[in-house]
Amino acid sequence: MRVRGRWLTGRERFVGLLVLGGLVVFVVLVYVVIVLGGGLLIGRTSSPHVGLSVLATAVVALAFGRVQSRLEVVMSRVVHGGRQSPYDVLKRFSPAVAGGRDDLPVRMAEILAEGTGARSAQVWLMVDGRLRLAATWPDGDGPPAAGDRSGRRELAVRQAGELLGVLAVQEHENVPLTPVEERLFAGLADQAGLVFRGVRLRAELVHRIAELSRLAAELRRSRQRLVDAQDAERQRLERDIHDGAQQHLVALAVNLSLARTLAGKAPERADRLVRAQCQAAIVTIETITNLSRGIYPSLLVDEGLEAALRTAIARSPLPVELIVADLGRYPAGVEAAAYFCALEALQNSAKHSSAKAAHLGLKGGPGVLEVTVEDDGSGFELDAVRAGAGLVNMRDRVESAGGTLTIATAPSHGTLVAARLPGVRRQGD
pTM (2 decimals)? Predict the structure, then answer.
């Protein structure tokens, strides 16, 4: 190693001699061209012209530094087999660091490999208490296999006693680093502290920005969920009032109108009908209050769909026949969809169809619940009212429970509303 170290130091001295020789040639060449050549042109060959000598001296002084730098680069590459000397590489390190490049770990690995002549170089950074590979030069040369440490040199990079990372080189087989290359290796490790800290701070900043972006996106999603939940609750309340409480109000309005008609012809009957509407008004208020609190009719919750609908149709201004087959208890969402769909269909029949009677069918099964409402009214053109609020509410409610809604109608042929809802019947029902 010492012999090879002295030989490499000799190569550096040889580079210096070549540069010196090149500078001498440059000075002589400038003198010959300007002083002698210029003297021939002006016919002054016996003795040097003072003006031309001053001009040659000025040219040498102005170009000397540039020529010297260029000669040092060229001679160094010639002597070192086409690659830069370790000292040239070390001089390139500080400008690279000062440039604040995003690929500093890669650049460091490249400079380290070129300066030491190693087969490959790696830069490891301490991240979250663990050493992680940040860069490799040449690219694609991964870390050595487990247990294979032959020809590998590592130096820790520390600042103020804190371990920031590790520089590693993989030597060529049977060609260890020379003392000069080892000093270059150590010099890079000494200078890399600030670089490693800067790279780690930049990585932490990128991580913080990504985390803040994630939190901002989550906040936006959270706000959107709140808005969606509020809209959904508003729409639910609107549907429940429209499909449930409005049916009671329609019956109340029809019965009060009938009482006014009977007031002149049959006062006693009209009086009984008005008194009955007091209780109907109380029930309507209770229904609206419960709906505003998100509570379904107590009979629907406690006794099921049949009991709740029997009570509802008892107050209907339109005579309704209830037909029940194989009905049990189903999940609350399925029963609520069936209940409000039936009320909406009956309400539409009473308000718009001029029907004399209606039939309400409830048919159950192990995995399905069917609800049908059929009246003998005037019917309507389905396409003309397809976007009506009542039909839209029924369809939305049934489809939200995973079911399907079918409407069959034609002018003068009545209307059939059929809802098919999937739902597993409760055990014991």
Answer: 0.40
